[in-house]
Amino acid sequence: MADQFTVRAYAKGVDQTPRKVSIVATLVRNRTVADALVILEHVPRRAAEPVKKAIESAKANAINNHGLDGKTLVISTLSVTTGTRLRRFKPASRGRALPFEKKSSNILVEVSGTEKPKKKPAAKPASEKTVTKEEK
């Protein structure tokens, strides 16, 4: 039986509140990567795009950097945490300024899957001879 490997990808500083992003994240948690990407294409929320990008990044890391099979990838962890908050002020009546925070999110995606089977090198036919410069 093949071993399971886990690969991570982060999306930091997403300019959305963590509450809105986590609503979208719950839709695709613990699904296969292919199913999750199809679901996120049809979700009519702005937060679907950064979640989709984070999943695609984890998929690309798993396939290209770690040699995992793309068909076996499953989202094992999908967490949304609070990112940095920027304190800003909004003008109000009578010369006042009311404070507010621009919230951001961090998205962590962990994808697990099995390793691709290694291909055996092709056997070279023994009948072919290579001609060197000395034999000419």
Helix % is 25-40%
CATH classification class: Alpha Beta
Overall pLDDT level = 91
What structural category characterises the helix and strand content?
Answer: alpha+beta
Radius of gyration: 24 Å
- Biggest sheet features: 3 strands, antiparallel
Fraction in beta strands: 25-35%
What's the number of extended β-strand segments?
A: 5
First-residue to last-residue Cα separation: 53 Å
Q: Quickly count the domains.
A: 1
Fill in the CATH topology.
Ribosomal Protein L22, Chain A
| String of helices and strands | EHHHEEEE
Poorly predicted regions: none
Q: What is the overall silhouette?
A: elongated
Do you know the CATH architecture? Alpha-Beta Complex
Strand order of the largest sheet: 1-5-2
How many DSSP helices? 3
Assign the CATH superfamily.
Answer: Ribosomal protein L22/L17
Word description of this protein:
With 136 residues, the protein is an alpha+beta fold. It has helices at 18-28, 33-41, 48-65; strands at 4-14, 74-82, 86-91, 97-102, 105-114. A hairpin with a 5-residue loop joins strand 3 and strand 4 (97-102).
Task: Tell me the layout of helices and strands.
Elements: E1 4-14, H1 18-28, H2 33-41, H3 48-65, E2 74-82, E3 86-91, E4 97-102, E5 105-114
Antiparallel strand pairs: 1-5, 2-5, 3-4
Helix pairs in contact: 2-3
